[in-house]
């Protein structure tokens, strides 16, 4: 029986197609093509389908050859051992004893992104244990948890073992798609997703044409070659949309965001890029590690509007406290997820402003009071931090600690914890040095 590589080579040569021509029509790198023909690499299913379509060869036969070679590639040992394994596999297939679940890729040793593995200003990933312990002890336990400004959702994730229901909200599209990817219910096929990202990782950036992403962000936030690849991948995810379930679509976009965060030429946000030559680190797309807990509600609304319609045991409040707008910090992710390709302005190539938070303006105390007044919950937990870049004027906090305290006191008795788990003697404490605080209010009935 011939090999897949031989079969594909014969088909190509029968058409008198040089490898260079195949590359032009399929975007599969010439070196990779010749390795496939020599049997030194297996094509992904996607690549094989491109070749089969181009050469007009038998798709079923190619799939069988690919499947057989995949099995053989994973087998080492002597001939007898291999024959025994194959016999046992064919017996299982005949009897229908095929494992019904594709194992999570992380379980078979494939590297995947954890939810916390992302740079995001003000995220509480390192404090979640502290926050949840205090909330749990102080409230005596709770069953529903409302993360009003969820950001990366690191706190929502930490609440999973404590609560039967998690409600998460953030008005950014990029955060919303990440929640849908990690948390939402939905059908997905990890094998299919893996084969798509395998295809992305096989693309040679030099073979990719200029596009919206590279035209705007190339050699700024990302090196030029990577930015071409990012634009191509984003467009490809959109092209496939009809063949993807909503969950698969969200997983691919979230994985793209997590992957490009690792090579972005920034200090962790996209307000500016680092102005020196960008070292080239090849983009490697990895999938995210799904959480899929039960009973999750996901919203993408303005906090103060949503608060009026949610009932929960605990509301966790972690708004921005200075004038730095998250929609401006993460404009590239917003752009990439919404993919409306808007006109961009300024050195940082930002679109026209939207999703500007009242919490970043002088009306922050009014917005905060309105929110607190309208929460329908038993306990309110508020995180407060005064550390972010405090030398800069735009980073001065918009709501003072005293304002937070007095607004919370209007709803009920309020206790303040600092990072060392200590409870402050309210009113007399010198707050200024404290960096991480957690206010907990027991709402009066
Ligand atoms: C300090 S971050 C939250 C960090 C989060 N606790 C974490 O661990 O990642 C504040 C979040 O509030 C969101 N936000 C700001 N104003 C908002 C509003 N009015 N409605 C909804 N979300 C808002 C921002 O997009 C940002 O993600």
Report on this model:
The protein has about 450 residues and is α/β, with parallel strands linked by helices. The protein has 2 domains: about 90 residues, lambda repressor-like DNA-binding domains (434 Repressor (Amino-terminal Domain), Orthogonal Bundle), CATH 1.10.260.40; about 325 residues, Rossmann fold, CATH 3.40.50.150. Helices cover about 40% and strands about 10% of the residues. It has 18 helices and 7 strands. The chain has a 7-stranded mixed sheet, with helices on both faces. Strand 1, helix 8 and strand 2 form a beta-alpha-beta unit. Helix 9 packs across helix 13. The termini are far apart. About 0% of the residues have low confidence. The site of S-adenosylmethionine has 23 residues, from helix 8.
């Amino acid at each position: 029986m011939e090999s897949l590589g031989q079969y594909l080579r014969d088909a190509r040569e029968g058409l008198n197609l040089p490898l260079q021509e195949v590359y032009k029509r399929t975007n599969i790198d010439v070196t990779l093509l010749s390795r496939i023909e020599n049997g030194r690499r297996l094509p992904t299913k996607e690549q094989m389908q491109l070749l089969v379509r181009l050469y007009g060869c038998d798709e079923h036969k190619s799939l069988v050859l690919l499947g057989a070679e995949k099995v053989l590639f994973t087998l080492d040992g002597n001939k007898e051992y291999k024959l025994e394994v194959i016999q046992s596999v064919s017996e299982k297939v005949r009897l229908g004893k095929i494992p019904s679940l594709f194992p999570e890729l992380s379980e078979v040793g494939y590297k995947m992104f954890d939810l916390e593995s992302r740079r995001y200003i003000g995220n509480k990933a390192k404090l979640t244990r502290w926050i949840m312990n205090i909330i749990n002890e102080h409230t005596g336990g709770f069953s529903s948890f409302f993360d009003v400004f969820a950001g990366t959702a690191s706190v929502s994730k930490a609440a999973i073992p404590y609560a039967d229901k998690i409600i998460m909200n953030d008005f950014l599209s990029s955060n919303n798609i990440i929640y849908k990817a990690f948390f939402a219910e939905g059908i997905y096929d990890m094998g299919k997703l893996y084969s798509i990202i395998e295809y992305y990782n096989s693309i040679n950036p030099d073979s990719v044409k200029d596009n919206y992403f590279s035209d705007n962000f190339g050699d700024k936030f990302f090196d030029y070659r990577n930015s071409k690849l990012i634009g191509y991948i984003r467009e490809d995810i959109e092209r496939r949309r009809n063949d993807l379930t909503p969950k698969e679509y969200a997983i691919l976009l979230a994985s793209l965001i997590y992957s490009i965060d690792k090579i972005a030429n920034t200090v962790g946000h996209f307000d500016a890029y680092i102005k020196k030559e960008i070292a080239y680190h090849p983009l490697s797309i990895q999938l995210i590690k799904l959480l899929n807990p039960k009973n999750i509600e996901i919203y993408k609304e303005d906090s103060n509007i949503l608060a009026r319609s949610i009932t929960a045991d605990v509301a966790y409040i972690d708004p921005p406290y200075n004038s730095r707008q998250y929609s401006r910090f993460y404009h590239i992710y917003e752009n990439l997820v919404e993919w409306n390709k808007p006109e961009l302005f300024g050195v940082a190539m930002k679109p026209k402003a939207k999703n500007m938070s009242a919490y970043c303006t002088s009306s922050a105390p009014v917005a905060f009071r309105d929110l607190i007044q309208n929460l329908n919950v038993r306990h309110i937990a508020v995180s407060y931090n005064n550390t972010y870049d405090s030398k800069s004027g735009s980073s001065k906090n918009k709501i003072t600690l005293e304002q937070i305290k007095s607004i919370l006191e209007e709803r009920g008795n309020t206790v303040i914890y600092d990072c060392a788990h200590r409870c402050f003697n309210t009113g007399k404490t010198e707050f200024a040095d404290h960096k991480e605080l957690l206010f907990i209010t027991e709402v009066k009935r």
